[in-house]
Design brief:
With about 270 residues, the chain is mainly beta. It has helices at about 90-100, 105-110, 155-160, 220; strands spanning about 20, 45-50, 60-70, 75-80, 115-125, 125-130, 140, 145-155, 170, 175-180, 185-190, 195-205, 230-235, 240-245, 255, 260-265. The two termini are about 20 Å apart.
């Protein structure tokens, strides 16, 4: 089952995705918070963000500031991600900061109808590059710096805000970025009933805090796959790069498993 996306405002890169009617086919630079923009604002001043090839296992986080769509049940908003920053504290300290964020306080500060937290997350790829906006200006929220990565559209505001969207559905992720995996690395993949391959680039600890990098080898036993879906693990014999472009046709797609681990379509695999 694949749901339709709202056509407006979905205009940029995201590590979270919106549903669509398509087939599968560094250091902290600022210490004070900047004034928050209005949700679902237009994007400007794109800039490149890069991570080195040692990012595997690093923590990152995302916050979405959403508004109801006046024309229907959907929602629109801006999202901010911490990816691209290096920290001098542990993942666990960062997780505690993120979990301590107050959604109602942020909702009022940013003028949104609702706030959704995506994370804590861990980066599974080794490196990345991508496009952010607002000149890569950082907003420090709860001691974590975030950059504006785009606008987001959800077909159902209520389902999105309550986290009730189903796993194992092909989702559109309109963004421009690359994920890099080193030769010799182990990759984790989902294969759809149609044979499309999706490679994991990040995992989530939101649903299950024990769903850690250390426990990835046990994921096969923990997944509850729908009929026809397959999960596999393989060791890379050469470097792997997953790429996506905002204006690609067909667009880039991702899949989330029941733990909200994120897998990107891997066109070079069968």
């Amino acid at each position: 089952m694949i749901r339709k996306i709202l056509p407006a405002f979905f205009t940029a890169a995201t590590l979270v995705a919106a549903m669509a009617s398509l087939s599968p086919s560094q250091a902290i630079a600022q210490t004070t918070a900047a004034a928050p923009p209005k949700p679902a604002a237009g994007l400007a001043d794109p800039c490149e963000v890069k991570g080195n090839r040692n990012w595997r296992g690093n923590a990152f986080y995302e916050i979405l500031f959403m508004k109801h769509d006046a024309q229907g049940p959907g929602g629109l908003g801006n999202y901010y991600n911490s990816i691209g920053n290096s920290f001098n504290v542990s993942n666990e300290v960062l997780d505690a900061r993120f979990k301590a964020l107050d959604a109602e306080k942020l909702r009022k500060e940013y003028g949104s109808d609702g706030v959704r937290f995506n994370g804590p997350r861990r980066f599974v790829a080794n490196g990345f590059s991508g496009i952010a906006f607002d000149g890569c200006r950082q907003r420090v929220i709860g001691g974590i710096p975030f950059s504006l990565y785009g606008t987001f559209a959800a077909p159902s505001y209520d389902a999105f805000m309550t986290g009730e969207e189903p796993p194992y559905h092909v989702l559109v992720s309109k963004r421009t970025n690359s994920f890099y995996f080193n030769a010799g690395e182990t990759v984790h993949e989902l294969v759809t009933p149609e044979g499309a391959v999706y490679t994991m680039f990040s995992l989530s600890l939101r649903v299950d805090p024990k769903n850690t990098m250390k426990n990835l080898p046990t994921l096969a036993k923990r997944l509850k796959l729908p009929a026809g879906w397959k999960y596999r693990v393989r060791k890379l014999d050469k470097d792997l790069t997953l790429t996506s472009s905002f204006d690609s046709n067909p667009p880039n797609t991702i899949v989330l498993d029941q733990f909200e681990d994120n897998y990107q379509f891997n066109a070079g695999q069968k």
